[in-house]
């Protein structure tokens, strides 16, 4: 109850004009980045990460939370109007949103997407606020061996969640783990893999890795891709003028979708979000398929059924609340955005883990308040006020846009560290991530391997030291054994039992 009271009291911070301005600005930036195909909220956070140095940590986390929520719902704009999902989590929305657009009901489809996002995001944030303190207390029962098994479980799940490219995901994760070993040994005062360079004594800074992996590599990818401006212009020419009142779905249509659809999809999204590496795309897919399975008219899906939009958007926004659970309580990011938010915490000297909710709850409560505020207030408000203009975002010239992004990325990496060496490392990481992405390696596993690597190594060495080198300690301690068995369950269901390889095609076929 004390933590809930802290969250309620944190809404008062939104009355401060400066704080509210950062939250609203973060939401608009997240919406713009997620609405432009090729850009994501992850890239927006990576670019804005250096700016958090000039903010106090509370305001920075509140702005990050609003970007996160906006990044999940913003992709539905172009997914509905021009059939180009602005974010991976919106690909299921396009199945029914675009057919509604072709019928002249595009604004109504966006209204249903906004309402579903509001319900899912709000419910996910509420569940996070209610359950996070309880999960934090339970996490105190996890000892050293259990922490190693937990991080190993997270790494394995993140790898096997990359359907169809698990070997490449494992290789990328190993590269991240290798990069994490550069610098001073955490337990013995010796340097490793510095190759005589004094600049590497402290290891690789998190900032260059994040900016290089997501921002620089994205610029290189887009520079080498063929322009889709003709396709976008053709799609835009078919979009009719949209009025603000067209976004408001009727109460009767919401009743027809059903409260059960919103709640079930939100719960699916929330619990999928708690799984490391699952992400909004998996949450929206599972919710969509479940809605089709239980529908009385499954053949109407993929042809403009608002229930499909509601299920997809409720789930992918509920993922936001779920993904923050492992990040706050165990320091394990649930997806790329929470990985960068973890970076914000670490940069500001805050170590996520079981003690965070007890010792520094005052820093976390405002972030959760901002997440709830963004879902319930900013999602419907910004779509109603700015919806008619959002579709024009995609007409921005890509050469000017990516030139500005490149400048922000390089300058930001230098401002964050004031080190020419680390700025060069940003470019090196960008080129490395570019070649990995060109060959279909998921770079998210590289980043999570780099972030989780130090803790994985530390808890492994401590566990073996406490057991005199006996590896059976991971099977004889109950907390560790629980995560070992959980890993086996996930490997069975995600690897041995062959999963659906093409979620969109499977849902369309259904």
From TrEMBL:
<feature type="transmembrane region" description="Helical">
    <location>
        <begin position="107"/>
        <end position="132"/>
    </location>
</feature>
<feature type="transmembrane region" description="Helical">
    <location>
        <begin position="363"/>
        <end position="390"/>
    </location>
</feature>
<feature type="transmembrane region" description="Helical">
    <location>
        <begin position="402"/>
        <end position="435"/>
    </location>
</feature>
<feature type="transmembrane region" description="Helical">
    <location>
        <begin position="267"/>
        <end position="289"/>
    </location>
</feature>
<feature type="transmembrane region" description="Helical">
    <location>
        <begin position="144"/>
        <end position="162"/>
    </location>
</feature>
<protein>
    <submittedName>
        <fullName>Tricarboxylate transporter</fullName>
    </submittedName>
</protein>
<feature type="transmembrane region" description="Helical">
    <location>
        <begin position="169"/>
        <end position="188"/>
    </location>
</feature>
<keyword id="KW-1133">Transmembrane helix</keyword>
<feature type="domain" description="DUF112">
    <location>
        <begin position="20"/>
        <end position="448"/>
    </location>
</feature>
<keyword id="KW-0472">Membrane</keyword>
<feature type="transmembrane region" description="Helical">
    <location>
        <begin position="20"/>
        <end position="48"/>
    </location>
</feature>
<dbReference type="Pfam" id="PF01970">
    <property type="entry name" value="TctA"/>
</dbReference>
<keyword id="KW-0812">Transmembrane</keyword>
<feature type="transmembrane region" description="Helical">
    <location>
        <begin position="60"/>
        <end position="86"/>
    </location>
</feature>
<dbReference type="InterPro" id="IPR002823">
    <property type="entry name" value="DUF112_TM"/>
</dbReference>
<feature type="transmembrane region" description="Helical">
    <location>
        <begin position="472"/>
        <end position="495"/>
    </location>
</feature>
